[in-house]
Amino acid sequence: MLIPSIDLQNGAVVQLVQGEKLAIKDDDVFRWVRRFERFPKVQVIDLDAAMGRGDNLALVRQIAGALSCRVGGGIRTVARAQEVLAAGAQAIIASSSLFKDGAPDLAFAQLLRDGVGRERVIAAVDSRGGHVVIHGWKTTLPLTAVEAVRALEPYCDEFLYTHVDNEGLMGGTDMAAIRAVRDATTRRVTAAGGITTQREIDDLHALGVDAVVGMAIYTGALTPTP
Q: For 211-220, b where at least 16 C-beta lie within 10 A, e where not — what string?
């Protein structure tokens, strides 16, 4: 399944290369909401909340009222997760908050699971250069994605694996890395990071893996249908 991504920054839809360089900005957020309204799943990431620079919660609330979406960015407390779910999100995506002192923070993961229900928790595991990265991909941990997934499996219903090495570059993703994560868990896996073609989406589907696509849609390289 293809899952379109809506990344929000300063009230606009954006696409960043490697999480840093602004490549696309569109202030007409609801043009994309209307385009994606027939998709069974849409991913919404509040980049401002993720970076600790305010949030787009009012906008998230509007989007969640129109789309079936999972929402990430700035989910650092159980209260924040509950707030996002109350806004209408189907599930929350937790990322950096699931790690502490270079390892999975199982105490927080348990609090989150118990606070909102395992079925509504998606654990984001981002990898660059073979190691997990957090804090907007700026902090590298002495931990592989496979190790992280195995540790966090009891606390979530799904993993979002992003292969940061390829993110935003429009050069394809790393199927071997995604397959390794898929083989490490019994939970559902969704992949992101450089997915550009329908062939990649079909290959991931054959593995039972959903594909989050952003840049390829916004540049027009890929025209998805639900």
A: bbbbbbbbee
pLDDT tens across 100-113, in order? Answer: 999 999 999 999 99
Instruction: Determine the Cα–Cα distance for residues 116 and 177; give it in Å rounded to an integer.
Output: 30
pTM of the full structure: 0.94
Residue type, 7: D
The catalytic residue positions are 7, 126
Q: Which residue has the tokens 């395992």?
A: 118
Reference 191, options 111, 119, 126, 110; nearest CA is 126
Low-confidence spans in the chain with pLDDT less than 50? none
Domains of the chain: 2-218 (3.20.20.70)
> What is the CB neighbour count within 10 angstroms for residue 226?
12
Q: How far apart are CA 127 and CA 134, in angstroms?
A: 9
d(CA 101, CA 5): 30
